Amino acid sequence: MLDERDGARAGPRRREATDLYATVLEVVKRYHGAARITRVSYGAGMPVDRLRNFVERLVALGLLKSEELDGRPAFDITPRGQEFLSTYWKMRGYIEVLEANPEDRVSRRRA
User: Fold this and answer.
1) What is the pLDDT of residues 30-59, one digit of tens each?
2) Which one in 36, 88, 89, 91 has a CA-CA gap of 20 to 30 Å to 15?
3) Shortest CA distance to 26 belongs to which of 60, 67, 6, 54?
4) What are the distances in angstroms from CA 57 to CA 17, 70, 99?
5) What is the rounded distance in angstroms from the CA atom of residue 77 to the CA atom of residue 28?
6) CB count in 10 Å sphere of residue 25
7) What is the DSSP string of 2-42?
8) Buried b (16+ CB within 10 A) or exposed e, 89-108
9) What is the pLDDT of residues 77-101, one digit of tens each?
């Protein structure tokens, strides 16, 4: 990542694969079993062709399930997918604490 001292501004953090998996699971969860690939694509901010690979991987891992709805595939999150999300959000919380500037934590304690 570029540093402010290098004269470049730091942009938004690049989404890692685990972030993308969690985003897809969150979007699917929102539709309660009726998540079609196009809706998930818009919600996750990913092109459909790239998203299909992620969805296939999540189905293979048992985090999503696919069902036919009106003759087309629709996706729903599984209990294992819910467990993944719960663990993911806990870990994100820990990571944010670890990445936070130590001076910010000290100033918050004093306040």
Assistant:
1) 999 899 999 999 999 999 999 999 999 999
2) 36
3) 54
4) 11, 23, 29
5) 6
6) 24
7) --GGGT----SPPPPHHHHHHHHHHHHHHTTT-B-HHHHHH
8) eeeeeeeeeeeeeeeeeeee
9) 999 999 999 999 999 999 888 888 7
Could you tell me the two tokens for 28?
């699917």
Question: Taking CA 41 as the corner, what is the angle to CA 78 and CA 65, rounded to the nearest 5 degrees?
Answer: 20
- Buried-state track 48-57, b at ≥16 Cβ within 10 A, e below 16: eeebeebbee
- The whole-number pLDDT of residue 4 equals 43
Length of the chain: 111
Rounded to whole angstroms, the Cα distance separating 106 from 111 reads 9
Per the structure block, which two tokens stand in for 12?
């938004």
- Give me 39's structure tokens: 């809706």
AA identity, residue 32 = H
Phi/psi for 78 (5° steps) reads -95, 170
